Amino acid sequence: MLLRKNLTDTMNALRRSRGLSITAFSEEAGISRSSMQSLLKGTGNPRMDTVEQVASRLRLDPAMLLSGALSEQQLNVAVSLLQALDFFSRFSDEEKEKFASLFLEMLSMMKADDQSD
User: Fold this and answer.
1) How far is Cα 110 from Cα 114, in angstroms, rounded to an integer?
2) What is the dihedral angle through the alpha carbons of 107, 113, 116, 117, rounded to the nearest 10 degrees?
3) What is the separation of C-alpha 10 from the centre of its chain, rounded to a whole number of angstroms?
4) CB contact at 8 A, 62 and 55
5) CA 58 to chain centre
6) What is the pTM of this model?
7) What integer is the mean pLDDT of 8-13?
8) Which residues neighbour 37 within 8 Å (Cβ) at sequence distance 6 or greater?
9) What is the enclosing helix (H) or strand (E) of 70?
10) pLDDT by residue (tens digit) across 30-78?
11) With bands split at pLDDT 50, 70 and 90, how would you rate the model's confidence at 117?
């Protein structure tokens, strides 16, 4: 029962963090809308190969879906970071260097602001 609750909580957090409808999320995960609804309600009982397929399609470790190791807030932050890294990986080397430079500048500004308080 705990694994099912972890799966339900994680899937709900992922869907909300991505701002997707159940239909869009089920398409992304590669399962039917009715199966996704069952998972999100906690009434589904997916086979392990389904969990592995969903995790693969969502680019996650299957253990992350079942473990319940992260709070909803931590999961939302992790998903956001993974999305940012995916976006960043598409940059050219020149764009990555520019981004890194701007990011360091932003951190310096934040540090300077903290010191002025």
Assistant:
1) 6
2) -120
3) 9
4) yes
5) 8
6) 0.62
7) 88
8) 22
9) none
10) 999 999 999 999 998 899 999 999 999 888 888 888 887 777 677 777 7
11) low
Residue position matching structure tokens 């998972």: 39
Long-range CB pairs of 56-64, under 8 A, 24+ apart, other chains included = 57/28, 57/29, 57/30, 58/14, 58/28, 58/29, 59/86, 64/10
Alpha helix (H) residue ranges in 1-117: 2-18, 22-29, 33-41, 48-57, 62-67, 72-89, 93-116
Residue that is written with structure tokens 């809308």 in the block: 33
Locate 49 and state its tokens: 């190969």
Tokens of 50: 């389904």
CA distances from 33 to 13, 18, 36, 74, 76 (A): 17, 17, 5, 26, 22
Give the mean pLDDT of the chain.
86
Q: 29 with 19: CB under 8 angstroms?
A: no
